[in-house]
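Researcher: I need the complex structure. Ligand is pyridoxal-5'-phosphate. Inputs:
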Amino acid sequence: MSSSSDFDLPQRIVRAARKVTGSTPAVLHEPSFRGNEWNYLKECLDSTFVSSVGKFVDRFEADLAAYTGARFAVAVVNGTAALQVALRIAGVTSGHEVLVPALTFVATASAVVHCGAVPHFVESEEESLGVDHHKLREYLRGETAMRDGQCVNLRSGRVIRALVPMHTFGHPADIIGLLEVAREFGLVLVEDAAESLGSTVGGRHTGTFGLLGTLSFNGNKTITTGGGGAILTDDPEIAKRAKHLTTTAKVPHRWDYVHDEVGYNFRMPNINAALGCAQLEQLPELLVQKRCLYGRYLDAFRDVTDVRIHGEVEGRRSNFWLQTLVLDPSVAHERDAILTATNDAGVMTRPVWKLLHQLTPYEKHPRMSLQVAESLAQRVINLPSSAPLGGS
Ligand SMILES: *Cc1c(COP(=O)(O)O)cnc(C)c1O
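Model: Output:
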């Protein structure tokens, strides 16, 4: 008789994952189109309004606002553009620094650089995989001074203007603690909620805690518009400005081309919004499936020692966008063997992103001690996460 201890860790993980994925190859995340996608796309083509004007954009924005509880949603071409414009509206400009986690997708930092500002990398916590507000507060108390209500980095002399937490793989960061830090240091909080559509803190949707929040509808996210993003805000003036800036800053007129500032062509095309409307209708069901999938992984990995399936913190609800296996520090050295064994077996797994301060463009950027982020980067593996794996 063989028992689980007869297998080495990579093989034990392959076996556990296959209890969930079955024997057919499973990709990391694929979209599912089981609702009105075809109908709305056909309606969009039949109307000829496939591009920058059309009713689906307005409807998608209204539906997003209703779903998230934000007063306003402005649909744009992708999540990176959403973040760039959100930061610009938050007053981030050249010479500023912006606090972003080192443990995030590269877009969080690119958006800062596109505003002419400098990303300043901050530490994450094991519990939520988000920014550690305790350590951040201590760090800012030691390294910055308040001058005229602005937080000045004493080392660089630059103003730190904003804080951009990110809800990793859909797991909400400790946004209440982070809001307190933002308040203490006069920072604008802009939430990168690209991964957390459907995730809530105390019943309130992620992306609605900061002055602005942003979403992504890229093909690998919980719902997709092909490519797309949105800016969320409760402030009517900000919403108006976000719409204006992302639609070439054109002043409405029957025929004149008057643009009153330098804007962006970041508007979401109607054909993408049509897909988004249908996907949003499916979201509640997708979230149920993703939560079931989490339960299935929990069961399957119950007897696998030295690893855990990342779960929720009390009071915070995850959308379980990407299922996450966290290795104990004692077996971190087996990460690449695990990635190889699982991918060889048709179970598509991926490590977390390379930490941003380790990428060439960001090597010399300011940062605090990143011990936990560096440890997590060696220990986090994403498992196949498509909603239908949770059951249909
Ligand atoms: C996907 C993602 C983005 C950007 O989204 P795009 O739509 O691909 O531009 C930004 N931040 C994070 C954390 C993401 O995962």
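Model: Summary of the prediction. The two ends are 35 Å apart (CA to CA).
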